[in-house]
Amino acid sequence: MRTRPRSLAAALVAVALSLGALVVSPTASGAQTPNPLQRGPEPSLTSLNASRGSFATSSANVARQSNFGGGTIYYPNDTSQGTFGVVAVSPGFFSPQSVIQWAGPLLASHGFVVITIDTLSIFDFPNSRGTQLTAALNYVVNSSPAAVRQRVDPTRRAVMGHSMGGGGSLEAVRDNSSYQAAVALQPWDTFVNFGGVRVPSMIIGAQNDITAGVGSFSEPFYEQIPASSEKAYMELAGQGHLVGSGQNNPQGRMAIVWMKRYVDNDARFEQFMCPPPTGAFSGISEYRNTCPG
Fold it and tell me: Is 222 within 8 Å of 194 (Cβ atoms)?
């Protein structure tokens, strides 16, 4: 006896179920879409406390420009992982680039293209430093040597600075909401309000700072930034204003964490932000933030 064929409807249902299983199986197995901006290995306290990250780096000098004072670009040698976010760093009042140059190779070794700048004048105030940080970012993206430009993602930009450079970094992101992050080290600024900042911003104050006292500068700046913007305030125990002019742990390490989380959108670094850093990140007298949400 011939077997009766299944109905067309039943056949279609069977095919649909088979295709459905193929479509949903990666999700059912727990697979997740990888972050295309993620750079570097799995982070740890050990890797963050090391003097350098996993990327070998090179540097290129930048001559004085019409809109900023020149500087040095640090960049990863690796081209196998795609392009990198770009960070500009400014020194403070009466300070040359060398004061904040420690940040260049440190951040670059964790997967960023970094330009540490000289300002047009060592007397430039924060608003000018903010404008020069933006000019430096534009230079890296548009006019730097080809070896640098091919490594840069022009859509991912961040700023950082010390003292008046810290105030300048906050002014830069207040005026450029498309930026991804700011880190202000012992920021100094006057007659400004940062309620218009919409970019994730970390402020690092120093407990014994008598030049930019935290009660008059860092803490009010932090409070002015809306909680909806993502923000953090860290205060370094027993440190003074010049702590930003050298590679301090945890200052440099938390700058890495902030940049990786918001420039690279790398959620692997959230563990070092929430709950507040302790243990290997000792030396912190106060820490508060909104936590990524």
Answer: no
With b for 16 or more beta-carbon neighbours within 10 A and e for fewer, the 43-75 pattern comes to beeebbeeeebebebeeeebeebeebbbbbbbb
**pLDDT tens for residues 234-250?**
999 999 999 999 888 88
189 is catalytic: no
* pTM of structure: 0.88
182: enclosing H helix or E strand = strand 181-185
Q: What is the DSSP letter of 218?
A: H
Catalytic residue among 209, 218, 245, 264: 209
Domain ranges of the chain: 39-289
- Catalytic (active site) residue 110: no
Instruction: Give 225's contacts (C-beta < 8 A, 6+ positions apart).
Output: 194, 195, 197, 201, 231
Can the peptide bond before residue 275 be classed as cis, meaning omega within 30 degrees of 0? yes
At 193, phi and psi to the nearest 5?
A: -135, 135
Q: What is the pLDDT of residues 146-159, one digit of tens each?
A: 999 999 999 999 99
d(CA 9, CA 161): 67
What CATH class has 39-289? alpha beta
**105 exposed, middle or buried (CB, 10 Å; 0-12, 13-18, 19+)?**
buried
Among candidate residues 90, 109, 128, 163, the one labeled active-site is 163
162 is catalytic: no
